[in-house]
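Encode chain A's predicted structure.
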Amino acid sequence: MARRRQVYEGKAKILYEGPEPGTLIQYFKDDATAFNAQKKGTINGKGVLNNRISEHVFTLLDHIGVPTHFIRRLNMREQLIRQVEIVPIEVVVRNVAAGSLSKRLGIEEGTKLPRTIIEYYYKDDALGDPMVSEEHIACFGWASQEEMHDIADLAIRVNDFLCGLFAGVGIRLVDFKLEFGRVWDDDYGRIILADEISPDGCRLWDMETNEKMDKDRFRRDLGGEAEAYQEVARRLGLLPEGEDSAVLDLDSHRKRRGK
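Encoded structure for chain A:
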């Protein structure tokens, strides 16, 4: 088999050259990082679960007309995606006070916000992904005003849909991160949703107990990270009850089967 050309490696994923022009293969790792990669570790099977969860969410978003880079899932850890020009802005959508918002403004974690807040962060690990305003984005040309309107509109649509999706399985969507990219048709650039949507980039709390079901379990040394990710997948119908950990680790699975 020909060796694939690696295009990019991030904290949680690797991108490889795709089989067709304009496509990439996105590989989900088990690596876990927090606090701008100051804390590092591994969550067994995370890549498999995030691949499945993100596939599920992006497929549903496509059904309601949200344009995304997702094409199809290839295997346990990989999906085929459209190649995009990433807008260097992380978009954070907040419904409940938690994390840095609580720390910055002294608002008790778990306080329901009077309205949904959208925040923007400049994607630069060396700078710690600083929070920026739309004025900064316009000034430095990271995105046009029209693109920012599209990004904000898509972020609210995704939030409305995900709040309902997770509430239907007893999970509160506290906040989450989105990334967007441009696809080009001749000289016309169009904004579409990129990256992933999974417990890595979402704060998900059980609606009855407020138990954390996301990467905060890793950030705060709560333990049970893999079980929390599995529970999210289970509630979404992606990991049936009684299934043997949904084959979270391919090497272990092959060994058990004697291959």
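The chain has seven helices and 14 strands.
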